[in-house]
Amino acid sequence: MGVLILDNEKIYLREISFSDTDNIIKWRNSLYVKQNFIYQKDLTREEHESWIKTKVKCGKVKQFIIIEKGNNNPIGSVYLRDIDYNNSKAEFGIFIGEKTALNKGYGTIATNMITKYGFNQLGLNKIFLRVFENNVHAIRSYEKSNFIQEGLFKQDVCIDKKFYNIIFMSIFKNGDSND
Ligand SMILES: CC(C)(COP(=O)(O)OP(=O)(O)OC[C@H]1O[C@@H](n2cnc3c(N)ncnc32)[C@H](O)[C@@H]1OP(=O)(O)O)[C@@H](O)C(=O)NCCC(=O)NCCS
């Protein structure tokens, strides 16, 4: 089977492979990305390889590398995790590790691409995410992608003895969250 590619004018998404491991570790452990993730410990090569083997290879996670067109540079990753076909839902995640690629609209485009893929190709009904309340950059991008706030979890995550609020956002296949 060939490598799945999702195409757009400015970026494309290519299915992750073991050869992306160095980039993933570099991006995921960069301060800018790490400080915005709920799991704040450094990601080890072993943990990432185990994630690929036990989650990606068996379809529990669909993960892509985001590639900037023109220069063909890999800049980050976007994924749907814990895909739950019984309830037709999955959790969304994204990070752009190359700082020069931030604020160019790529995060929003990649989000739109993978949610469309989740609804149309995987048959999902709901895609949700969890984000720190103070991550205004990511929240702005998610709002542009039509995620709506579904809940606020107060003092939900503890880092260095400080508690942080988490916003839970979702997007639905039919675009209507009032059902
Ligand atoms: C979240 C992320 C993928 C967004 O990617 P991006 O390509 O920079 O996002 P976009 O360019 O599509 O959109 C960013 C929007 O946020 C705005 N923005 C950027 N910094 C901001 C800030 N400090 N305050 C408010 N808005 C901000 C931008 O102006 C833009 O909105 P606009 O188009 O209305 O001007 C990227 O910031 C990232 O990888 N962050 C680190 C990891 C992370 O936070 N992951 C999510 C964890 S839940």
From TrEMBL:
Give the Enzyme Commission number. Answer: 2.3.1.202
The top EC class is transferase
User: What InterPro entries does the entry give?
Assistant: Acyl_CoA_acyltransferase, GNAT_dom, PseH
The record, for Pfam families, names: Acetyltransf_3
Q: Does the keyword DNA-binding apply?
A: no
The molecular function terms in GO held by this entry are:
acyltransferase activity, transferring groups other than amino-acyl groups
Q: Which residues form the N-acetyltransferase domain?
A: 11-170
Record keywords: Acyltransferase, Transferase
The membrane spanning regions, by residue number, are none
Please identify the protein, giving its name as recorded.
UDP-4-amino-4, 6-dideoxy-N-acetyl-beta-L-altrosamine N-acetyltransferase
Q: Which organism is it from?
A: Clostridium aciditolerans
Q: Which gene encodes it?
A: pseH
